[in-house]
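Revision sheet: C-alpha cells.
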Amino acid sequence: MFVFNLSLNGNKIFKIILVISCILVLGILIFACVKIFGKNSRFSINDKVKSPDVVQLTSSNYTNTLKTVHENLDSYIGQTINFSGYVYRLYDFSDNEFVLARDMVVSSDFKTLVVGFLCDYKKSSDFSDGTWVNVTGKITKGNYHGEIPVIQITKIEKIEKPSDEYVYPPDDFYIPTSALF
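Predicted:
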C-alpha cells in the first residue's frame, strides 16, 4: 500500500492560488484581444478615411480648402468638388478660363481680396463677369504663372448671390494636410 503524505503551509497555498489566478487573467486577456482585434471582429480598425465622391465647399471651409489644395496639389488631382462663387476674369485668361471667385475679408475695415479656383469651361463666354454660379468639377493641374489647381467644370448653373458671399482667411486651426477630403 502506498501512502502519500502531503503537508501544505500557508505560503505554498498562496503561491499556488496566485499562479492559477495569473494564468486565468492572462487567458481572459488573450481571449478578449482576439475577439476585439481579430479579423472577424465587429471592432476592426480602419486606418483609411473614405473621401466623399463630391466635396462641398462652403463659405466656412472655402479658404482652408483653397490653401490646402494649392499646397498639396498632387494629392487632390481627380477629386470632384462643388462650390459657388462669381465669375471673375483677368485680361490674360484664355476664352475658356475664369476664376470662380469669392471676396475674402482681410481687415477689420472690411477690405477684401479676390480668391478662388481657376476654372476651365468650353462655354465660359455664356457667363459674364460678376455672375454668380454653382459649379461641379474635377481638380486638375494647370499652369498660370506657375503650377496651380484648375477645375475642369462638368456642371455649371447660374444662381442668385448668396447671403454668405464673403469668406475669411484660413483659421488658426488650419493644418496643412493631404487628407482633407
